């Protein structure tokens, strides 16, 4: 399987599980409605683990342009492969969002609040403040990349075959600890790909796609990913 194909499949799986758990929690008449933040964070964490197990042997399961850039900065990914990774991640994120839309096709119209519909696809801040929201995304993505790279130093962890599960727990921890202010995009593809899907899909009463905020969950994770890669090189030389 090519890098592009693996990243498309893996990121689509991630968004199907992640967007799906948000849809189940927020949309009217879902049996999981009102199950809460803990369920959402577990859904995203398990989505990462399952996607990583599925395509890890083929591409390393980056599933996230910030991860790809952070690994490239740290020398763990060839820069020549970066465009193929990122293209696959964005395409996969869009496909995953479409699958979530189809899975919950009967629940869009009964859900009157357009904000809840948008939340299935993309993030939004609890308190809208450009600087603070950007910093939150930078910090969350920084620890994601730094920790993933640090895990890679532990050869024993790799031998267990549980690296994907640990990555899932890392995303769960970030969601529980740092997800409150912005919804923890920590992944440009995870936010922008589904946001585009929201904009083009025929969702009844969906409202706008909040493009004025859309750059923050793209730029913040990119900055955080690059800083995470640089910090790893600083503290784990050689």
How would you portray this structure in words?
By secondary structure, this protein is an all-alpha fold. It has one domain: Glycerol uptake facilitator protein (Up-down Bundle). The protein has helices at residues 3-26, 37-59, 65-73, 82-103, 114-121, 130-153, 155-160, 163-178, 188-200, 216-235. The chain starts with a helix and ends with a helix. The mean pLDDT is 96.
Work out the number of β strands. Answer: 0
> What is the N-to-C order of secondary-structure elements (H for helix, E for strand)?
HHHHHHHHHH
Total number of domains: 1
Distance between the termini: 31 Å
For the record, the CATH class is Mainly Alpha
Extract low-pLDDT stretches. none
Shape: globular
Integer-rounded radius of gyration: 17 Å
CATH architecture annotation: Up-down Bundle
Counted by DSSP, the helix tally is 10
CATH homology superfamily name: Glycerol uptake facilitator protein
What is the structural class?
A: mainly alpha
Q: Strand share of the residues?
A: under 5%
Main sheet specs: none
Overall average pLDDT:
96
CATH topology: Glycerol uptake facilitator protein
| Helix-residue proportion | 55-70%
């Amino acid at each position: 399987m090519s890098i592009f194909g693996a990243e498309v499949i893996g990121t689509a799986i991630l968004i199907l599980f992640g967007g799906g758990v948000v849809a189940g929690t927020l949309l009217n008449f879902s049996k999981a409605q009102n199950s809460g933040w803990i369920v959402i964070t577990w859904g995203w964490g398990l989505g990462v683990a399952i996607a990583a197990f599925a395509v890890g042997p083929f591409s390393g399961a980056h599933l996230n342009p910030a991860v790809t850039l952070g690994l490239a900065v740290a020398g763990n990914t060839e820069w020549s492969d970066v465009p193929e990774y990122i293209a696959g991640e964005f395409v996969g994120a869009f496909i995953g969002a479409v699958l979530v839309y189809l899975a919950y096709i009967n629940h869009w119209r009964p859900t009157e609040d357009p904000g809840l519909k948008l939340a299935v696809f993309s993030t939004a801040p609890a308190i809208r403040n450009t600087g603070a929201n950007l910093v939150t995304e930078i910090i969350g993505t920084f620890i994601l990349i730094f920790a993933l790279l640090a895990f890679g130093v532990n050869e024993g962890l790799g031998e267990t075959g549980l690296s994907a599960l640990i990555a899932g727990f890392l995303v769960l921890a970030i969601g529980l600890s740092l997800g409150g202010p912005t919804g923890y995009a920590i992944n440009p593809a995870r936010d922008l790909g589904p946001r585009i899907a929201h904009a083009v899909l025929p969702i009844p009463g969906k409202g706008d796609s909040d493009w004025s905020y859309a750059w923050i969950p793209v730029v913040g994770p990119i900055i955080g990913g690059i800083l995470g890669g640089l910090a790893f090189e600083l503290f784990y030389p050689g």
